[in-house]
Structure formats: C-alpha cells, structure tokens
Write a structure and sequence with these properties.
Blueprint (H helix, E strand, L loop, with lengths): L29 H8 L17 E7 L4 H5 L6 H9 L6 E4 L6 H10 L3 H4 L5 E3 L6 E3 L9 H4 L5 H7 L3 E6 L7 H6 L4 E4 L3 H13 L4 E7 L1 H9 L4 H18 L6 E7 L4 E2 L7 E3 L4 H4 L2 E4 L5 E6 L4 H12 L3 E5 H6 L9 H4 L5 E5 L4 E3 L12 E2 L5 H4 E8 L1
Length: 395
C-alpha cells in the first residue's frame, strides 16, 4: 500500500465494529436450539423462531454468505424461494462469530460455543504452550485435540441422550482432529459426491424417531477463493449446490426440519498493491512482530515481549480507516470472541487483532505465497463475511 504511517489517518474506533449475535442468532446457537427441541440434556434454545422437530438436519455450505445468496437469485432459485417461504416468510441470517473462518465456525456449530470458549479463535493462532503458530484447519503442528478443545460436541450430547446422530461428509474428513473436536458423535458416513451425501443424509434422518444429522459441501468456498465470487466458476458451484439442497429437501422423511446454513461469506479483494498490505515488504508493520497469525482479513499479531503497545500503535496508524485494530483486551472486552474467553484461550488471541472493514488484506507474500494471491477472502466482521443463511424446509 502507498499509505504511510506518517499520514496520520484517524483509526477506526474498536467500538464501531459490529459484534456477532452470540446467544441469540449466531452459528453457535443453532445446534443447541435444535437439540433442546429434542429434549437433549445440557442444551438450551437460543433461537425462539425455530419450532422443535423430531428429526433435524443441518446442511452447511462452506463459503455461502447471506449477501452473496441474496445477490444471485437466478443461480439459486430453490434457496431464494426458501428465503421467502421459511421461518415466517423471511428466512433470516445468522452471524458466524469472529473470525468468520471455517475452523472457528465449524467448532462453533458443533460445540454450540463461541470461539472464546471452544478455543479455535482463528485460522492460525499461537499455541501458548510451545510458542508456535498452530494452523487449526490443517491441525499443524499437531497437538492433542481434546486438550486443545475439551468440551463435548452437541452431537455427543445428543447421541448420549438416545438421539440418532450422524455426520455425512467427504471421506477424508472422518478422522481429522478438527472433526474430532468439533463434529464427532454418533456415526460418520463418508461419501464423495454431493448427490450421495444428500441421499445418505435423508436415510440417516429416517433412521431414528429422533435424529440429528449434519452434512457439508466445500466447493463453493474453494471456487470463491480461487476465482472470486464474481466468477463463472463460483456461480456454477452455487447452481450445483442449489440443486443439492432441493434434492435433500424433496427426500425429507416425516416430522423433519432441514436447515441450510454456511460457515462464512466472502469478499473479493483486487490483486493490486493498493488493496494488499504486505507485511513482508513493510518495515513499519513488521517491526516488533514475533509471529503473524490469522489470515488476510482477520489477523492475530503476536509482538516481541515488551513491544505490544508499540506494535498496536503502529498497526493502528498504518492501517488507518480500513481496519478495526484492537489490543487483545480491547477485542475481548468488545465481545468479538464471545461473552467469555476461557483462560486457556486468552494467550491464543493476538496481542493485536486486526479486522478488515474495506476490501483489503494484510498479506505476507514470502511466508504465505499461496494465501497472498487468493481473490475471494473472509474472516472479518463485515456483513458480507459475518452473515450466513438460515433457511428452513419442514415435512
């Protein structure tokens, strides 16, 4: 970026950032509400407009934001019709939680907890025990999963309560640490094709008098990252997944509710340097930084001991009006990670937390060459990233 720290742009107030609707309309509230409707102990309903059903299915479409869905009714006619017909004729969005990224959101979905409690508060965060960056999507470097995230999943609570519980996803997800800590409980059914997943999800719903089934599709997100949400490839994936939703909806057994949602939305960021702050090329942003975590629109910055205040001041000055930049305690007090942050999670959060407001990124072209050239990005607190659909079909 051409902007310099010495331009003295007034930084955005931390309090001006929109805070996810934890406790009333976030991803973390969905499964507890469904489970509470099936009388699962330890779960509480937080979304009152969801009427209890004996059989509940959540279909999570990776990367499909509410704003992107609303902007493409021709590519997604079935889901667009659901917006007008479900949940009292409005559909509605949920907020993902911060950051709006897959590992964090899937943990929020599966545990029913905000990021500050389940402890996956970003794409890559510092492990306070080792001092290393821990990539929570790839789970590298490896750490004991249930030490990192010790809480039971809602699927486990439902299974223990006698609810038929199943996850239907790509086979390679079955034994990953992220699945273990976020989505395990009951049985896992690996299927390669989207059509097969829809068919098996319907079968699993019918397998119990009370059922809780989760299924997942990834490639809307993948094509958005590679080609952008204004691309033919992305629109083609949206058309495909719309047909998958219809296929599953048409097979629902009696007394079922299908909920279609997502883990985050997405923002296209131009590839030119005016929209990408490069930490590997910017001495001001690099000064005093020991580790750079998070991702381009939701950074965790870990300072050299003693340099925390200086790093916060410089990042605020350089990033000006295009990012909300907070110190760790400010971000926690503002509720970005939820109403409570567990002590074990506190040190995973950056000394400085930077959340993009505009269509900009903080990249690291040498350390993160692949991530630095992605067109579609997500992670921050903007509506385009935070808002995800909540669509309902009942039988």
């Amino acid at each position: 970026m051409v902007q310099s720290a010495w331009d003295h742009v007034e930084p955005l107030p931390v309090g001006s950032a929109p805070v996810p609707a934890y406790g009333s309309g976030s991803l973390a509230d969905l499964l507890p509400t469904l489970a509470a409707g099936m009388a699962v102990p330890g779960t509480v309903s937080a979304i009152p407009e969801l009427t209890p059903a004996d059989r509940n299915c959540v279909f999570l479409i990776d990367g499909l934001g509410w704003e992107q869905l609303r902007a493409h009714p021709d590519e997604a006619p079935f889901m667009s019709a659901l917006i007008e017909s479900s949940l009292g004729g409005t559909g509605r969005p949920l907020t993902t939680g911060y950051p709006a990224t897959t590992a964090t959101s899937l943990a929020s979905v599966g545990t029913g907890l905000p990021p500050g409690e389940h402890g996956l508060p970003g794409y890559a965060v510092r492990n306070p025990g080792t001092g290393e960056l821990m990539n929570q999507l790839r789970w590298y470097p490896w750490t004991a999963p249930h030490t990192w995230q010790p809480y039971p999943t809602v699927f486990q609570l439902a299974h223990e309560a006698g609810v038929h519980t199943a996850q239907v996803s790509a086979p390679h997800f079955q034994n990953t640490p992220l699945t273990q800590v976020a989505l395990s409980g009951g049985t896992f059914h690996g299927r390669l094709s989207g059509e097969d997943r829809m068919d098996v999800a319907a079968e699993q719903l019918a397998a119990g008098d009370r059922s809780l089934v989760y299924t997942y599709y990834a490639e809307v997100d993948g094509n958005g990252h590679r080609y952008g949400i204004d691309s033919d490839a992305w629109r083609g994936q949206l058309m495909y997944v719309d047909r998958l939703v219809q296929r599953l909806a048409e097979q629902l057994p009696p007394r079922s509710a299908l909920y279609v949602t997502a883990d985050h939305g997405m923002v296209d960021v131009p590839l030119d340097p005016e929209h990408r702050f490069d930490v590997d090329e910017d001495w001001e942003l690099r000064a005093g930084v020991a580790l750079l975590g998070g991702e381009g629109r939701a950074r965790h910055v870990y300072a050299v001991p003693g340099a925390e205040a200086d790093v916060l001041a410089v990042w605020r000055e350089v990033l000006g009006e295009q990012f909300w930049v907070a110190g760790r305690e400010e971000a926690i007090a503002a509720g970005w990670f939820g109403p409570r942050v567990d002590p074990r999670v506190h040190g995973r959060i950056g000394d400085v937390v930077a959340a993009a407001r505009d269509d900009v990124l903080i990249i690291a072209s040498e350390r993160e060459p692949k991530e630095s050239v992605l067109i579609g990005n997500h992670g921050s607190l903007t509506p385009a990233e935070q808002l995800v659909p909540l669509l309902e079909v009942r039988s």
